[in-house]
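Checked the freezer inventory, then went back to the computational side. Two predictions to log before the end of the day. The first one is the construct we discussed on Monday; recording sequence and C-alpha cells without edits.
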Amino acid sequence: MDIIDLQQINVKVFVTEDSHIHYQNFIKVFNKWMEEADHDDYLNYADYSFTHAGPGVLLISKHSNYSIDNAQNRHGFLYNRKHAVEGDNEQKINRAFIETFQKCQKLEQEGDLENEVSFNGSEILFMVNNRHLAPNTQETFETVKLALFPVLERIYGHTDFTLERASEDSRERFAVQISATSNLGISSLLDNLEK
C-alpha cells in the first residue's frame, strides 16, 4: 500500500525554445475541442493571458484542467487532475503522463497553432496540487520518487534522466523537476509509455 495516496497530480511539459505562443490561437483550439467533443466533459475556457507569469489560457473540464501555462515566465502545457483517481501511485502517475502527452501531441498537430508550438519532452515538471497529501518535504520527495521513477524509466528508455525538488520552500507546492538527456519528441515518449 502506498504511504501517500497521490491525487491532484499535475504535469507540465515545457515548450521548445523556438515555439511561439499566441494565446488567441489557443482560445480557438480550446473552443474547437469543446465543440468537437462527443461528451460534455469540457465546460469552458478562461483567458488569463493578461496576468504576468500566470496561467495563460485554461480549458476547464469536469475532471481535469488543461492550460498553456506561463508560471515563472516559462510557457508549457499544464495538465491538472482535479478529482480522485483510483489505482496505486505508479498507475496514477502513468495515467497523468499519458493524458498529458496525448494533449501535447494533439496541440502539436493543431492547424490553428500554425506549426509554431512544440514541446520539449526532456524537461518536465511533476507536481501534486495538494499540500495536505504531499507537503513540500524531502520525505515526500523520497516517497513519490518510488512511484515516479519506474514511469520515467518507461518514458525515457535507456536515456539518462535526473529528478530534483523544484523548491525546498515549504510554502510552495511539492514539485519535481525532471531533466533528461533525450531529444525524443512527445510522440516517441508517448509510444514508449503505451508499449
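The second is the one RB wanted added to the comparison set:
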Amino acid sequence: MLHTETVDGATLELIRQLQADPVLEGFVLVGGTALSLQIGHRISIDIYFFTRNDFDAQQLLQHLEQKYQFREQYRHINTLKGIVNGVFVDFITHNYHMIKPNEHIEKITMASRPDIAAMKVNAIAGNGTRVKDFVDIYFLLKEFSFSEIISFYKLKYNGRNDFHAIKSLTYFDDVNEAEWPRMVLEKDLTLKKLKETLISKMSLL
C-alpha cells in the first residue's frame, strides 16, 4: 500500500505519468518521496529518479519540454534537473547496484528501503546540512539497526569510507533546522530527540 497522504495528489499523478513514459524506462523513484510513500512518515515534495544507465540529457530535456512543459534548472552529463508544474524533478545516472529488488507498488517502481538507507547515508556523508535526510534515517532505524544501515551503505558503495559515514550520521552542527519537514508520524519529533536517538543507536555498534 502506498502512503499517498505524504505526497500531493498532483505530484503523485506526475510520478505515475513519468514512470509510464517509455522514454524513462529504467528510471526508479528514490529519495525521501520514495521512502515517504513506503512508510508514511513525512510530507515530501520533490521527485528524484535514478537510473544505472547513461542517458542523453539534451534529448531527455527536449522530450520533457514537449510532453510535460519541463523547465530546465540544470543540465550536465547524465544529469537533468528542473520543474514541472511547480514540482522539482531530478534525473540522474547513479551507477551503483541495487542491493535489494525494487519495490513495485500501485504502478510505481521505487528503490527498496535498504537501498534508500544506503543512499541517505551517502548523502549525509557528502552534505550534512539537510535535516530531512536525518529525519529519514531516524525512521529507517525503526526497521533496521544502525549496523544494518551501515552494512547497506558498504554493500552499495564498496570502497567508500564507512568511518566517515558513521561520524557524519551523528554530526549535527551543519544541519539546517529551518528546513524541518512536515511530519505525518511523530509530529512532536524534535531535532534534540532525533540527535539523542541516532547517538544512542550508534553506541550499540
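For RB: Residues 8 and 76 are 29 Å apart (CA to CA). Residues 113-198 form one domain. Let me know if you want it refolded.
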